[in-house]
Amino acid sequence: MNTESNAQENVAAMEKRVRDSFDRQGLMHHLGATISHVEPGLVHIRMPFRQELTQQHGFFHAGGTSAIADSAGGYAGLTLFPPDSSVLTVEFKMNLVAPARGEYLEAVGKVARFGRTLTICQMEVYGVTGEERVLVALGQQTLMCMHGKSDGGPKA
Question: What is the pLDDT of residue 151?
Fold first, then answer.
């Protein structure tokens, strides 16, 4: 097998690992969030508008906004972690820069600095309506690579 096909298999395996882990997250399922894009060091998550996800003024609640940003950053980090590892968020900070409104929110997580144990990600969240994308939140996150600990499902 040539190097290019090995790389394609590795990317496919990484994407499957990310999507399988995401599918085990009860909160993301509850929010109706889905992964829309995965590549090494970059993940996009979308959350469609529902009245149940709003705050008192009718905008998306910051809790949902932050949750999809945290997951997008975490999974961006996981794309670069070894196959037998998992990810945990150590810390994150979000700045809400505009009212979160639109047909859906899209969180973009991008690895800013990859490390053996700690990885730093940047997160952006956009409110999307049709072709219009408005930045509604910015964040930064520190992740820990849990070497030798896959996240293979719930523990009793």
Answer: 82
